């Protein structure tokens, strides 16, 4: 891993630059608060013409909440760990897209592309091995379906509690498994031992795991957006297991100082901790 200043040498703000940013643990603190310094650095890049693209495991509604906090609109975002690429806001310069059902989000959000899958077999395996986990299933047509209640504030948008056999819909985009009695690494080990096939999975900073369609990741989503906007250089900043692919994909991958050790091997350099405005340090260095 190189020094941050060395890794960022030659990267400059402007229309040729795409900046892929994770939300939780990168832009936002783990209590979901936002530093004014980080917000200002992001908006300074937007003003300079850089393509700031949120790349998150969050749903459309959760992404909208973060964009509102930052003050971003008229932009693309990679949501649900790459399963959905969406255009947020009414900017006429965004590519033609499909409106989102108001049952999912009541905001001007349109879909650029979405990847769906059938995770029924994987959910059955997980519940057989880990019966105490809570599961949330997102889709393109209905509110997020829950096998058990999640703590207040952990999920954004509309949710509905349903029997396990009604969790999956034909247009499922993401499955979230929450295991509060386990650490992140314990959950990753347990899921890996199940030998799930046909899906991608990644653990966040807590005992929270996402399943996505095979071949789908934040990196794949950012590559798609790069083609749309025509950026020549890329930088990505993240902190969790679902950021590994995009850190490796970017010309410069920067991992946050609050990341797990196993995530750091995918990055070129490391920023300070999120509590120390690590993202702002990165963005200010290339303005």
UniProtKB/TrEMBL annotation:
InterPro entries tied to this protein: HAD-like_sf, HAD_sf
Molecular function terms, GO-annotated: magnesium ion binding; phosphatase activity
GO cellular component terms listed in the entry, alphabetical order: cytosol
PANTHER family: HAD SUPERFAMILY HYDROLASE-LIKE, TYPE 3, PHOSPHOSERINE PHOSPHATASE
Protein name per the record: HAD family phosphatase
Organism expressing this protein natively: Trueperella pyogenes
